[in-house]
Amino acid sequence: MNQSFEYFAMAWSNPDLFLLTAAGTFAGIYIGAIPGLSVTMAVSILISFTFSWEVNEALALMAGVFLGGVYGGSRTAILLNIPGAPSALVTALDGYPLARKGKAGQAIGLSTIMSFIGGLLGISVLMVAAPIISNFTLAFAPRDYFLLAVLGLLLVGSLAADSFSKGVFCGALGVLLATVGLDPLTAEERFTFDALELMNGIPYVAAMIGFFGFAEILVQLEHLDVKQVRQELDKILPSLDKIKKHLPLSVRTSMIGVFVGALPGTGGDIASLLAYDHAKRSVKNPSVDFGDGAEEGLIAAETANNAAVGGAYIPMLTLGIPGDAVTAVIIGALFIHGVQPGPLMLTETPHLFWFSAGTLMLANVFVLIFGLTGIGVLSKIVQCPKGILFPLIFVLCIVGTYAIQNSLFDVYWMMGCGLLGYFLKRYGFQVAPIVLGLILGPLMDVSFRRAALTVQSDASRLAWEFVSNPITAVLTAAIVLVLLRRFIKLIQHRF
Q: What's the predicted TM-score (pTM) here?
């Protein structure tokens, strides 16, 4: 036990590791805040710089960038309605309305505190329950991931404040767009129309920047005469009473984040979506309506996506299976340094497990410190004259999109998605479900077909497995209950 604590505290006591974690977290926050610069890309680049380092130094820097990047996406989501990362998509739903009411400083302060709480709980679960949770997630079959994706697609309907059907339509449109490109199992072309540029599919980051950034510019151009909102910066830190009030919700949504993060192939985007839906269903008297600046919606999204980081480390360290794209890159870094993550890691190299937990905890502290600095300067962004702000955002959208793959074709996609998003917004459609559909689509596609292959495409056997397996049955029941609840609401509305 003493030796475990020694490994855990190594990053805290070693000046070099302490500074590397701090530098990684600081860089991650601002990388995550820039649309188009993904945390996955940043960690991938780090491998080429750190392959000659000691493994502890490399892991400390990567942990800081990872945790800082997940939090950093909330900055531009709140201030500009442009999520810096997919995990911040749901944050924008209530964070941006708060900024438009002059409460950008309070929104960032609240998101920082709740991100810290979510990260703290996620890392604590990683340390205490890693073997238990990893064994449970190992029981998930391809059909379960398919059902999880379907459930997520149905839940995006709850992101559409006015119409469930509009939300599901936009989610389905996102899934349709996700099928463009090469088939992931057979490598056959799908909806490419013999265009070489469509072989790799539609880059969802470019689509995200278009739907949220460029579309928002076009919408706001119709309101140039609206007076700028003066931001209240005198109360950035939420009161202790407010934190206590929302603590039960933050704990529940953090646990959702840990669990979803521990499912291989998922991540903070799905975790924040499920947590947001849980908040909408469980909070009886929100501060305001969800989607109109509800603090509860912001809390649910931020606690879940930060807790998912600790969850993503669970299958990576205990099973050698990546929890998300970033941990897949970190696994590659571990292999380069001669470390084999997997079931034997806790017995053969326990020091790396506890060191990883310690660096994540230290990075979480730095998220709190760095997250509460510079809020005054950042909040001035939304007070900038629109004649200056909108051209600057447009340039950033183009640069951020081009930086993904150095491709002008991605820029065209961004602008096309922006135009589509503008017209959808004009007619009361939400664009967030489209981007989430783009993310969930490949998971749904591959998982269902793998499930069909396991039963040799026997429909009756596949149907039986959907109700006979306990995990599958629970997920099936959840989908049925969501549809039944919506059907009952529709009947009540009609009569």
A: 0.69
